[in-house]
Amino acid sequence: MALEATIMAPTERRRGLWSQMVKSRWAYAFISPFFILFLIFQFGPILFSVYLSVVNWKGLGAMEFVGLKNFTYLFGAGGKAFRQSVLNGFILFFMYVPIMTFLAIVLAVILNSEKVRGIKVYRTLIFTPYVTSMIAAGFTFRLLLEQKGGLFNIALEALGLPGVPWLESVWWARVSLCLLVVWGWLGYNMVLMLAGLQTIPRELTEAALIDGASPVQAFFRITIPLLRPVILFSVILSTMGSFGLFNELMALFYYTRGSGPMRATLTPVVHIYHEAFDNFRYGRASATAYVYFALIFVLAYLQNRYFGRED
Amino acid sequence: MTNLRSLATQIAVYSLLTLVAFFMILPFIWMLSTSFKPQDEIFRRPPILISPNMSLDGYRYIVDLGALRVLWNTFLIAFTSTALSLFFCTLGGYGFAKYRFPGRGALFAFLLGTMIIPSAVLMVPTYIIMLKLGWLDTYWPLIIPGAANAFGIFFMRQYISTISDELLDAARIDGCSEFGIFLRCILPICTPGLTTLGLIFFMNSWNNYLYPSIYLKSPDKFTLPLLMMQMQGPPGYSLYREWMGVAMVSVVPLLALFLIFQRRFTEGITAGAIR
After folding, report:
1. pTM of structure
2. Helices marked H in A118-246 — which ranges?
3. Which residues on chain A are in Cβ contact (under 8 Å) with B228?
4. Within a domain: B259
5. ipTM of the complex model
């Protein structure tokens, strides 16, 4: 094909491409729905959003061009809520992601070995929260974490410990949120790890154990390094997750519209939602969304760069 | 894992498993129990799981409130969007998997790239587009935009690429049209993959709160998550039992689906992780 291409005149080459495309018209037809919908509902909105982010608009009336004011606003006095939301994203991330990921790996390793009785039952039970609406779960957690009559505090007091203001104090609210998030996503991450474990040949760990390594050593020196790609994938998902928590917040912290006590649990996505649909500041919301997008992108890129390298 | 398991290890392992499993189940048990309890027993000390005063009153109340209608709405939206999405994603996946055409690599890479865009960025401008289209307070924004989505096409492409080409060529020789091949050969063979993907789509639609809360305004169009949010009263005065009743209505159907199709659910997750 290449030889013919060099001998053919340019017009003939172009006709070759065109006739190839015509021959494949069905393929183009089949994949076109995606691109059509993309243009209308993703590309169009993105362009529109760029325009929105430099105007002031309340949904009715004129759009007032304000240049980069929406962006500088985020770094000035009025942007405190947004900055707090970004900070919360990091705080929440460090609070639950390491523990949850580690637990997911440990559980996966345990459930991957055939020596445990009732594996299927445990796997099912641990995965069940994934199919539950986080709104339903969030409300149930609210009942459980109710300061005066909730099950958690009753249990604590039965053990002689003081009850805890789970949803009312700044740090306990974050803990409560992390409990809910781990509850909902541990099973999912465990299944991810299980899948990753399937790619590790058993002989590797067995050889190490025969050579005298303890199971714990084999775990840390062999299993975890080989699981690196899956761990990275899981952590990146969790990163985007912790900045994007929405349903959980709306259910747990209904009376503050998801912000939590003193904005302790506000996430960027909830903040953008407030700006757009509670405050009707569409321009500012769009600008904020772009800053959020940039943040997520950079974080994912950095994580991939520093932890994604093969040895 | 070694064959020699000391007693300590066994105790540790089973304790951990049981603890985690218990934590996972606890909310469901509590949800179920609370949905039958009279108001004054919900925060009782000591707590009680099954009380002699349990009744179906909570459920009667929410049915009167229109919960069945909301259940139907939720189902309608989930079913329609799933069916539509399955059709278009399989079509797109088939196109990318079984056809060679100029630009295929670039177009597919582009498709994958669009998966990075967080929905928060699209949230605001899409709302305004829907406003202009007159689609506010209708179900269209929940069904149309995701009809041909990148993840679904990625998933089905992976799945369809395992189908043998000879089968398709044979169908062509038999005089089957290209679209006919899709309908009569590809779709039937893909049933397991369609089930897996369909479950994911269905579940995401059923549990979705963000988009329904933005687009649906009339109470008779609400979905279950919206109804749950609406049941809040002033602090301390919510109808907890009825709340949990709606939560149960939301949770039980998906639980049932999950228990029946367990394997399919886990397949769906791992498809994205293993490249």
Report:
1. 0.89
2. 119-127, 134-144, 151-158, 170-198, 202-210, 215-218, 224-226, 228-243
3. 133, 135-136, 139, 251
4. no
5. 0.88
